[in-house]
């Protein structure tokens, strides 16, 4: 089997409402790049990458000389051809390599008639549990629905998600409002869903002192972990000395050099493995092996997936012996998907690991065309900007908080 072509298609898929985060907002949609690798035996492998747009199309087009004619089973050789560690200081291809790895694993599974989880060593679980992913949200620009800004709105949203999907672990994405308001929100959700577990993530925009204070205020909550309260390994180490719960990260341990530094002088207890940020499923497995050796917790991180990347997360979660916590997923915020059959379904807070060969999902060509056309009409959006605060950017540590009494509706194109 040899690679004969590669193509990338940017798409944009609507969300229930714009999602707010510490550094800006998802403006009512996700932009993703769908990657297809064709082979001389007629099989097509699927990959997915976050964002990108025209630049991603150009990046994948530029890799054709490195890819055409190669055997997709030789993934380790492809890794060094595409993202050689020294060369990658200049070409920044880690996420591109991840999408190619997904597609190559998909091809191998289809060729051999087995799901990717079997290639990775065999599944240990048939379903992967997920946490709810609670965001502060702007109202939908068209109908004003979906807003999450106040304590009462957040509690109602958490209760809705639990009733709809069966989540028993709940994550709040913070760093939007002042810590005092977000503390009231977090504690209210924990009280309303007593008996479940909780996690909080302000995306690293606090000072160590703010993080210590917040962590001490939630010590009595049943916390899974405290995620990225500050940015940087030493800052995390300082906070870890002063709080009584595990710290987790998907920002300051995202490669093996950082993982080794954390193992030698621990700053983070739980490593959130992202199949895109780490460059593929296989690097995540390697990292999980290191974590197993050093008794660090692991979980599966979400970077804003459609169904193809969600499948990679499910296959990863299925084979990890040391999967310590429910996975994250933005997936329930989406209104649709580009895979055949539409969105995957949750049952009792979990999603079944696909059993069909390869990643176990197929492209819905009509949906791909529909959401590619939507991308061409709307274009991309600035992830690191807030639509109601033009020119705003957070400081680190931040003191430029949004106003929880501001009920304006953003005028964003949808």
Automatic annotation (TrEMBL):
Metabolic or biological pathway: Carbohydrate acid metabolism; D-glucarate degradation; 2,5-dioxopentanoate from D-glucarate: step 1/2
Pfam families documented for this protein:
MR_MLE_C (PF13378), MR_MLE_N (PF02746)
Superkingdom of the source species:
Bacteria
What are the residue boundaries of the Mandelate racemase/muconate lactonizing enzyme C-terminal domain, all occurrences included?
151-246
InterPro entries, sorted = DgoD-like (IPR034593), Enolase-like_C_sf (IPR036849), Enolase-like_N (IPR029017), Enolase_C-like (IPR029065), Mandelate_racemase_C (IPR013342), Mandelate_racemase_N_dom (IPR013341)
* Molecular function per GO: glucarate dehydratase activity
Q: What is its EC number?
A: 4.2.1.40
UniProt catalytic activity = D-glucarate = 5-dehydro-4-deoxy-D-glucarate + H2O
Q: What's the name of the protein?
A: glucarate dehydratase
Q: Which organism is it from?
A: Rubrivirga marina
């Amino acid at each position: 089997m040899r690679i004969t072509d590669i193509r990338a298609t940017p798409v944009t898929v609507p969300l229930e409402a714009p999602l707010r985060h510490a550094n800006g907002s998802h403006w009512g949609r996700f932009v993703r790049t769908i990657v297809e690798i064709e082979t001389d035996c007629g099989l097509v492998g699927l990959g997915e990458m976050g964002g990108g747009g025209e630049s991603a199309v150009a990046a994948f087009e530029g890799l054709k000389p490195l890819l055409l004619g190669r055997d997709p089973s030789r993934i380790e050789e492809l890794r060094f051809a595409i993202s050689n560690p020294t060369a990658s200081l200049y070409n920044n291809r880690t996420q591109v390599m991840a999408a190619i790895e997904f597609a190559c694993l998909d091809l191998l599974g289809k060729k051999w008639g087995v799901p990717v989880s079997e290639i990775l060593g065999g599944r240990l679980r048939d379903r992967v549990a997920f946490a709810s992913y609670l965001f502060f949200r702007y109202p939908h620009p068209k109908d004003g629905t979906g807003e999450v800004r106040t304590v009462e709105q957040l509690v109602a949203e958490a209760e809705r998600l639990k009733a709809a999907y069966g989540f028993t672990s709940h994550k709040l994405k913070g760093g939007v409002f002042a810590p005092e308001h977000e503390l009231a929100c977090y504690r209210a959700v924990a009280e309303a869903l007593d008996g479940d577990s909780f996690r909080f993530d302000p995306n690293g925009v606090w000072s160590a002192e703010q993080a210590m204070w917040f962590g001490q205020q939630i010590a009595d909550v049943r916390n899974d972990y405290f995620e990225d309260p500050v940015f940087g390994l030493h800052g995390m180490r300082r906070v870890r000395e002063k709080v009584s719960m595990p710290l987790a990260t998907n920002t300051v341990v995202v490669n093996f050099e950082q993982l080794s530094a954390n193992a030698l002088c621990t700053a983070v207890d739980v490593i959130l493995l992202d199949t895109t940020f780490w460059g593929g499923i296989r690097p995540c497995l390697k990292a999980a092996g290191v974590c197993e050796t050093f008794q660090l917790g692991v979980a599966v991180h979400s970077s804003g997936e459609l169904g193809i990347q969600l499948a990679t997360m499910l296959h990863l979660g299925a084979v990890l012996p040391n999967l310590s916590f429910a996975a994250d997923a933005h997936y329930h915020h989406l209104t649709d998907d580009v895979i055949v059959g539409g969105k995957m379904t949750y049952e009792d807070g979990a999603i079944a690991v696909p059993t069909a060969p390869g990643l176990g999902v197929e492209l819905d060509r009509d949906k791909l065309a529909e959401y590619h056309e939507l991308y061409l009409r709307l274009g991309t959006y600035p992830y690191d900007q807030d639509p109601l605060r033009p020119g705003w950017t957070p400081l680190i540590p931040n003191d430029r908080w949004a106003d929880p009494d501001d009920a304006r509706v953003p005028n964003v194109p949808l």
